[in-house]
Amino acid sequence: MTENKKNTLFQRWLLPGFLFQSVIIGGGYATGRELVEFFLSVGPLAGLVSILAVTVAFSFTLSVAFELARMTRAYDYRTFFKQLLGPAWFVYEIVYIALVILVIAVLGSASGELVGYRLGVAPVIGTITMVALIGILVFYGTTIIEKALAGWSFLLYATYAVLIWSFLSKFGHKIPAVLATDDMSGPWVLGTIRYVAFTATAVTMILFCVRHMESRRDAFVAGVFAGPIGMLPAIFFLLGMIASYPAILDAPVPADYMMQQLDFGWISVVFYIVVFGTFIETGTGMIHAINERIDHVFLERSTVMPRWLRPATAMFILFFAVVLADRIGIIDLIAKGYVALAWIFLGVFLVPLLTVGIWRISRSE
């Protein structure tokens, strides 16, 4: 196939991975609390094995999802699940909206705690700032969102590299002894399945990038790269957390706990800005997926989605999420909400994708 000059190698193979990382980081491991619930809670060694297994599972799952979307031209989750679930596609939409509200509630709560604690202002200031910035990005649409999410991913890699390298340099000598205490008896396989089921569904938020893929090879290579791109920061983050095990288990925001142990001074300000930006990335990606689904309905009716409707949709969702965050709090939201939704997504996304999805791909030319 002759390469389309408009679709660069970066867009076809690497951009999907950076977008995937952008939408999972805020709700998946930026605070570290998620890593505690899904991995560290089953033991340090078991958690490390589990997160490596998750990385491999992501590569396989995303390869299948990208190819199914590419060959059916399903660039929004509504079209994608019509291909995967048929008439039952709306079940996913109900669960997805619940997921969006839950994750943004977690981000709102984390933003409030981060800004409130660090700047000594009311937590609601951090939440409102996050909401406003998400609304602005959503207003400008796909092109700006692709650039913003990919660009911030590079900054995040650099910042987390400094944090984890510094933490491991200071406390890494404790890791072998901590790992030696774990006999792998914790339910790490169960944790792996739950995390993959819950987090891999983020691929439906970035289906718009599949437009860049020109062949089955592109889809599979993009999927293979997406697993490590998405999870390498989490793997090193978990290693740093293991050095503080078990004290870190009770920290509401483990990333903040680690930063306090380092006493970085002004560098910590950069870290908090980057973490705050990951919250905006994830919230933007999730809401943008809903807007893309609405936009597709307008296209089916040969009309154009009003530009004002994009930020209006964002504000509507964000309002309910902020109320939820204020009433429940980050620890309970993650411990109860994430685990419950993980089992639901196993049934409405992961199992159908790895059965019906693979069957459809195998039968296509």
Structure description:
With 365 residues, the chain is mostly helical. It has one domain (9-359): Up-down Bundle (Amino acid/polyamine transporter I), CATH 1.20.1740. 78% of the residues lie in helices and 0% in strands. It has 14 helices and no strands.
Key features?
365 residues; mainly alpha; Amino acid/polyamine transporter I; 14 helices; 78% helix; 0% strand
Task: Output the CATH homologous superfamily.
Answer: Amino acid/polyamine transporter I
Distance between the termini: 15 Å
**Overall pLDDT confidence:** 86
Share of β-strand residues: under 5%
SSE string, helices as H and strands as E: HHHHHHHHHHHHHH
Largest sheet data:
none
- How many individual β-strands? 0
Give the C-level CATH assignment: Mainly Alpha
Derived from helix and strand composition plus strand pairing, the structural class reads mainly alpha
Domain count: 1
**What name does CATH use for the topology?**
Amino acid/polyamine transporter I
Q: How large is the radius of gyration?
A: 20 Å
CATH architecture classification name: Up-down Bundle
Query: Ranges with pLDDT <50 over ≥5 residues?
Result: none
Helical region count?
Answer: 14
